[in-house]
From TrEMBL:
It comes from Letharia columbiana. Belongs to the AB hydrolase superfamily. AB hydrolase 2 family. This is Acyl-protein thioesterase 1. Residues 75-99 are annotated as: Disordered. The keyword Hydrolase applies. Its EC number is 3.1.2.22. It catalyses: S-hexadecanoyl-L-cysteinyl-[protein] + H2O = L-cysteinyl-[protein] + hexadecanoate + H(+). PANTHER family: LYSOPHOSPHOLIPASE-LIKE PROTEIN 1, LYSOPHOSPHOLIPASE-RELATED.
Amino acid sequence: MSNDPPIIIPAPSSSISPATIIFLHGLGDDANGWTDLVSQFHAAHKLPHLKWILPNAPQNRDVMAQAWFMPKPFSPIPMPKRSGEPDPEEDDEEDDEEGMMKSVEYICGLIDKEVEAGVPAERLVVGGFSQGCAISLLLGLMSRYKAKLGGVVGLSGYLPLSGRVGKMMEDRKEEGQDTSQTKWFLGHGSRDQLVPKWMFMRYKDQIEGWEGERVEAKLYEGMGHSTVGAEVRDLCGWLERAVPENEA
């Protein structure tokens, strides 16, 4: 089933350095669920140079909701392998890789259109919440736009296919292709009941190991599977630095 058209919110003011953020909703939500966030920024006269594209995931008949991929059940406690640590390769077996990569390619198509319209890849940010976070992380790490984007945002999500991604990142480093300038903002709630905190801590450590000081990661005490004012303010400040209004 095809995706409904995205909601496109133009930048309130013109800029000599246009920038775009593509932000993906979570499971069961849709693009309309994030228009209020954009309105908050505009009402506060923040990020006036930023164009927002809010895509819609296709309807998934199996879960009776809009979904970027088939979800898998999570446990609040990581299932250990024999060494006592969770095994990323075992996690990969449960991931809907086909559905995930189809969604990644759909978002890459939206990026293509922005680049064709004159927005440089380094002035593009891709981000998302929950399932949208998972797709954004995969896109930033293993798509044809890996290492080219200005930034990636991951809120209240996790890194799927982590075993495969880890192997690819190690191969990249060994081949001397570790030249990414992409900046990362990762946020999660300490009381998230849907995506356990341990999943955030694990993928945060992984991405920090691959991307180093370009990663800004924050755990918000008391926050559930949602956003709070502190996270929104931190995201705004990060976007101002990742894609500044008038880049020289």
